[in-house]
Amino acid sequence: MKDQGLESELRAWIREAGTPEPADVARVAAGIDRLPARQRAHRGWLQAAAAVVVVVVVVVAGVGLLRLPASGPGVPPATPLPPDPAAFAGDPRLTRCPGPDPDNVLYAFEMVRAADYPAHLPAMLLSPELDVDVPAFVVVYRSPPGIVHGGAAPPRGETWAPRSLTPGSHDVCVLVGSDPTTAEINIYGNVDIRGLTAAPQRDASSTMTPPPPSSVDPTTASVPSAGATTPTPIASTASAAPTEASPVGTQALEGVERLVADLEQAGASVRELAKLNSRLPILLRRGVILCLDSEEISVYVFDSSGERVAVTAVIDPEDPTYVGEAIIEWAGYPRFWERDRIVVLYVGTDQETEDLLTSILGRPFARGDGPGYSEGRCG
Amino acid sequence: MTHLPTPGATGLVAAAVRGDRDAFRSLVEPLLPTALGAATVLLRSRSDAEDVVQDALFSAWRDLHKLRDAQAFPAWFRRHVVRGAMRRAARGTVVVELDLDAAAPAGELDRALERRVLRRAFREMPADDRAVLTMRHLWDMSVAETADMLNVPEGTVKSRLHGAMERLRAAYAAEERR
């Protein structure tokens, strides 16, 4: 074969060799059906509650979920307000949203595109699941419809305590999709509805900006943080946090106390930032969030070292995105350490913090990366 | 590039991020034939290629939230495939099972023989060479696109292409002398 013909012959051969059999393509395509479910922790409560086992929980922490109010606390009421909800009497979308008492519907209106929600509800936090180009229907409840729970779950056998809303905030249902029978239900609690309007004057998509850094729990933005005053995507009952009253106990906290003592002995300043109620699959545990100097770490507390070993065994050491059957989107660069009854998680980037933890707890048993990094609340 | 993003790619990606498997299917299915083809050529093994594309489907599904530009989905998915294939090739556990002799049209014995020589020469090439040639001739990628895909400078791609063709010519000549 002449030199000049070699390249064209090579090209023809590669194209021939690179044309797979349709059956091979079909076999690979069938793999799409075997992919694990991809589900956000704050998806519609009906869908989530229907799941006996949370197979996949995608936890987007910190950076990705929060949006500052578009115009700050002084967002003026916009006009026009939505029409009387009675205009939608009998509309199947109203009954699709949970809490069907029509008298409890404060506002109901349509959005041409779900992605327009910042124009309709300018003070609502970032809700990326609504960033889709399909029609949506919004129901604003007058008072909590009893489907939304915040904070820790009640002790076993007891019911959820009545929720109170921040003044100016309401629970909201957003149906995403043009077919009311199949539209996706998204429930949001404690949504700041200041500036609500049924007829926005501008294209919301043009105003969408990257979210600012936030200071939420680094492990999961879906866990209501202590003192949070912002709306919180609603967790499902299937992934509810452990009860506040469930005893961690002094014995169970020994691991934390020992860790704190070791850290302080190494010269670090340690303070407890908040109690940890993790909804993460597998790590469905209580514990504490500690400020280690200016860095935030999470400490999960187990009942026994045996239980801890059983749980950490299903965390992929090279890619903690995989935790058992779950896929977790970490907010930074997760590194896990373990000792006796505790698991320590650090998602920050400070090498000294990592070195300090490693000097006390040994090498991390798992490490990986995630989509972003939140600065945390200790700085 | 042949697979341009569809006008609805943004909506499909957003839906897929929310867990809509059908949206994900709509995004990737048009890309599967060339993805599988490229992986097959690169790895010289259909079964390895299937594994790599399956892995790419999984990692793309898992990491979809990291995709900043929905219009870039085709290139982004190919990157998952190529990098997976390169990792697999680096393991050195290749089972050479490609055999296109049967595909040669009857009466074109000379051409079939040339193809056999070409195939042997190609399979002796290092994975890096096979990758740049595959991207150039199967995916019609430019030097810049190939460089981005392999995460190497454009100059590296140019030198690899040049070197690959030189080595192919040498290997081809050696095969012909056998």
Verbal overview:
The complex is a heterodimer of chains A (379) and B (178). Chain A is an alpha+beta fold. Chain A is built from eight helices and 13 strands. Chain A folds into two domains: 201 residues, no CATH class; 141 residues, no CATH class. Chain A is flat, with a radius of gyration of 24 Å. The N and C termini of chain A lie far apart (69 Å). Chain B is mainly alpha-helical. Chain B folds into two domains: 98 residues, RNA polymerase sigma factor, region 2, helix turn helix motif (Rna Polymerase Sigma Factor, Chain: A); 77 residues, Winged helix-like DNA-binding domain superfamily/Winged helix DNA-binding domain (Arc Repressor Mutant, subunit A, Orthogonal Bundle), CATH 1.10.10. Chain B is elongated. In chain B, 43% of the residues are buried. Chains A and B meet through α1 and α2 of A and α1, α2, α3, α4 and α6 of B.
Features:
heterodimer; A: 379 residues; 6-stranded antiparallel beta sheet; 5-stranded antiparallel beta sheet; 8 helices; B: 178 residues; mainly alpha; Rna Polymerase Sigma Factor, Chain: A; 2 domains; 0% strand; elongated
Question: What are the SSEs and their pairings?
Answer:
The complex is a heterodimer of chains A (about 375) and B (about 180).
Chain A: H1 3-17, H2 22-30, H3 45-50, H4 92-96, E1 105-111, H5 117-120, E2 136-141, E3 169-176, E4 184-192, E5 232-233, H6 249-265, E6 270-277, E7 286-292, E8 295-301, H7 305-312, E9 322-323, E10 326-327, E11 335-339, E12 342-346, H8 351-361, E13 366-367
Antiparallel strand pairs in A: 1-2, 2-3, 3-4, 4-5, 6-7, 7-8, 8-12, 9-10, 11-12, 11-13
Chain B: H1 9-17, H2 21-28, H3 32-43, H4 46-63, H5 73-91, H6 109-123, H7 127-137, H8 143-150, H9 154-177
Helix pairs in contact in B: 1-2, 3-4, 3-5, 3-7, 4-5, 6-9, 7-9, 8-9
